[in-house]
Design a protein that fits this description.
Oligomer: single chain
Order of helices and strands: HH
Keywords: Membrane, Transmembrane, Transmembrane helix
Protein name: Cell division protein FtsL
């Protein structure tokens, strides 16, 4: 009886140790995945900063003016006319939200909610 009980306890200890080791490996893999995702996020932030800096460099007014002067014969650009600027009253009206026909089964402009069900 005692021998069987000892074997069961040893077996329980081995199973417990294997379970703890498996949990440790899973936690390590999760930590590595989180670290990799953080690294990718940092790379994306750096790329965004780089692209914003490049965008601001490309949109400098003096650079754009020199490009306009250089390629004006090809582009045939004209100065902005005051009549091209419109007032808010000249803009088209926003779409009107319509009442649904036969209940609330439609979404979008015809329904009361913006989600199609």
């Amino acid at each position: 009886m005692v021998r069987t009980l000892n074997i069961l306890f040893i077996l329980a200890v081995v199973i417990g140790a294997a379970t703890v080791y498996d949990l440790k490996l899973a936690a390590t893999k999760s930590a590595e995945k989180v670290a990799e995702l953080k690294r990718q996020i940092d790379e994306e932030h750096d790329a965004i900063r780089h692209l914003k800096a490049e965008w601001s460099l490309l949109n400098k007014p003096d650079r754009l003016q020199s490009l306009v002067e250089r390629y004006n014969d090809y582009l045939l650009l004209e100065p902005l006319d005051v009549k091209q600027i419109v007032t808010p009253e000249d803009l088209p009206a926003r779409p009107v939200m319509l009442e649904p026909i036969g209940g609330n089964q439609m979404g979008g402009y015809a329904g009361s909610s913006s989600v199609i069900q």
